[in-house]
Structures are given as structure tokens and as C-alpha cells.
Amino acid sequence: MQLLDMLEEGLRDIDARGLRRRRRTIDTPCDAHMRVDGRDTIGFASNDYLGLASHPRLVAALAEGAQRYGAGSGGSHLLGGHSRAHAQLEDDLAEFAGGFVDAPRALYFSTGYMANLAVLTALAGRGTTLFSDALNHASLIDGARLSRADIQVYPHADVDALSAMLDASDSAVKLIVSDTVFSMDGDVAPLARLVELAERHGAWLVVDDAHGFGVLGPEGRGALAQAALRSPNLVLVGTLGKAAGVSGAFVAAHATVVEWLVQRARPYIFTTASSPAVAHAVSASVKLIAGDEGDARRAHLQTLIGRTRTMLKETCWLPVDSHTAVQPLVIGANDATLAIAAALERDGLWVPAIRPPTVPEGTSRLRISLSAAHSHADLDRLHAALQRASADAQREGAR
Ligand SMILES: Cc1ncc(COP(=O)(O)O)c(C=O)c1O
């Protein structure tokens, strides 16, 4: 078969299984109200949890960064691309999010995907065993594969199963890897137990706080701060394109771990540093997150989360028990999930249908992502539309 024929057959298969993904084109800034594919929409799709993506102070910081440092970095961090803006941001992040370890240092990456590949490939290798939660993000799964470590997947959040696996392992280097807030379920990993297991077994614990940084813990310092955890064995990855509203990611850990990454992490070394203007804007975002405005936004988000939990329980579908800004509603079949997402879209609401391979087969879902930019009136619209969709589904089911 010709290569193109193979791809066309593969795409037909994707269609037949209701798995075709489609990009929406957005003409307005990321906010609660957006113009998407030419239509006015209330967005519940972004990870802009604090509503900072179009905040005037961040837009101004981006412009100021560009004025001061230009548009591009010009090189990789080790070969001429590491600007004062990157260095300042790393200091800011170490101070803000590094409180879980003595001598913290932070390293800035252009994306969270790269940060996860970097950490796992630099800390794990042949002879390492990597223990990975079954629902970890794709970037952790890919990083684990690329590391060539032996990979053992433990059932989601099951610390007893993990403990048994660690007991049975005679690997010299062990690395436990987990999301903090699971991106498609919104639940929080049993972090205190994971830290305890890591210390008992002399293992590293790598946590990906993509959906916790900025939202959880005092001043939004993240899931580790929320649980008041400290351990030299901890390595934190935080992303900066979600609650922080800009882009990029960081790794925070003991300074020795970070220096090892600078020397050895290929996804850090062999890529052009992101624009210094972006780093400058992220520094402004960290200040916003940590200040009174961050507190007010987190408090508003919390009330929206409470309301959404109640409204999802009124539908005929299965809400996941999530106390975070990620509020999933599991529908099951791909086609049914797509149909409900389409009905919501006709009502002017953008709630994405999440399907395999992002979630396990048979657990397709609507992923309602809340933001401090949403108003109570926005939630009223969502509530009414979900009630209609749920009543329709029940009528269909009764036929
Ligand atoms: C849990 C988790 N980790 C890492 C990433 C990747 O971060 P980035 O989008 O900055 O590449 C994402 C989402 O994008 C995520 O949900």
C-alpha cells in the first residue's frame, strides 16, 4: 500500500470510531467570552484557571519585555540564548514555588512537555525503575519511554499497590512519577503518602503540578504547598501556560538536581530558548498570582467550583469527584459525548469532548474547565444548557 493510502485508511478509521479531532479558530483573546469559528461563545475549554491570559498587566509586561530584550532569544540557553529575563524568572520561581526543598533552584523551559521529557530522561535511564500512575499525562508517559528505564504502571492513586511494587523492586534507582491534579479527572494525587513512600524507599518523587500551580495552596504556590510537604527527594514540574496565563514551564528542585538537568537534559540543551519577553511576562504573572488579586481570583474560582459540583450532580451522567477547576462529566461512548458537546455548542457554550487516547476507552467525557474569568451568569447559562441536554438524553434513553 502507498504511504498516503495508509494514512487515508487510518483517518477513515479515526472517523469511524468517532475520534476525529478538530481545531477551533479563535479570533479574540483567551477569556470567558470568545469569538470561536466566527461565533460568540462562552469558553469552558481553556486552562486559564485564573483568567490571566489576557490580563492587561501581562500584556503590558510582554510588550515591555519585547522592548527591552527584543523578539527572539537567538540561541539555546547554553549557547547565547539565556537572557536576564530568563535568569530573573528562575530566581522568582525558586523563591515562590521551591519551598519544599532546601537550596531550591528553578529552571525555565519553553513548554511543560519539554520539562517532563527533560526531568525523566535526565534522572532515569537503563537500570532505573520508574513507577508511574496509570492516569499520568502523556508528556510523563513519553518521557518515561524515552528514558529507557524499566516502567511499572501502578493503578491510579493506589498507594498500597505502589508500595507493594516498591517493596518488590531491587532497582538501584527508583523514581515515582505522578500528576498532582489529574488533567482529565481533576482529582488530586495522594501526595503525602507518595512523599512518605519515596523517602522510605530512597526514591525520587517527580510531581507534575501543571493544574495546581497558581491555583492551589497559599498564594497559589501549588499542590505541594497546599499539603505542606517538604522533602529533598522531590522534583516539581510546574507549567506556566495554564493558571499563569502565559507559556512555558519550570522544574524546581534542590540546586544539585537542577544543575544536573542543565548539564544533561537534552530537551533543555538542544532547543532554542523561548523569547525573553515571554519570560518577562511570566515574572509579572508570578507577582499577580502571589498578590491580593491572585487571592481574590482563587476565591471566586472556588465558589464557581462549588456551584459546578452541585449542578453536575443534577444531570443523568456521572460527575467525577473533583474539587479543582477541572470538572469532568463522564458520558461513556464517543458519539454520545460528541453529540452533547455539539448541543452545548449550539447553545453558545464551548465544552470540549475528551476521547481516547486522552482518556481510557469507554470513559469519554465533557471536560468543563472553570476560570476566575467566568461570572455567575456564565454558569447559569451552562447550568440551563446541561439541564436541557440531560433531559434530552433521558428522553432518548426512555424510547
Ligand atoms: C499534566 C500536564 N503536564 C504537562 C502538560 C504540558 O504542558 P505544556 O502545555 O506547557 O507543554 C500538560 C498540558 O498541556 C498537562 O496537562
Automatic annotation (TrEMBL):
Q: So where does pyridoxal 5'-phosphate get bound?
A: G112, Y113, S183, H211, T239
- Which E.C. number(s) belong to this protein? 2.3.1.47
Q: What class of enzyme is it?
A: transferase
Catalytic activity as recorded in UniProt = 6-carboxyhexanoyl-[ACP] + L-alanine + H(+) = (8S)-8-amino-7-oxononanoate + holo-[ACP] + CO2
Instruction: Describe its function.
Output: Catalyzes the decarboxylative condensation of pimeloyl-[acyl-carrier protein] and L-alanine to produce 8-amino-7-oxononanoate (AON), [acyl-carrier protein], and carbon dioxide.
How does this chain assemble?
A: Homodimer.
Name the UniProt record assigns to this protein: 8-amino-7-oxononanoate synthase
- Species whose genome carries this gene: Paraburkholderia caballeronis
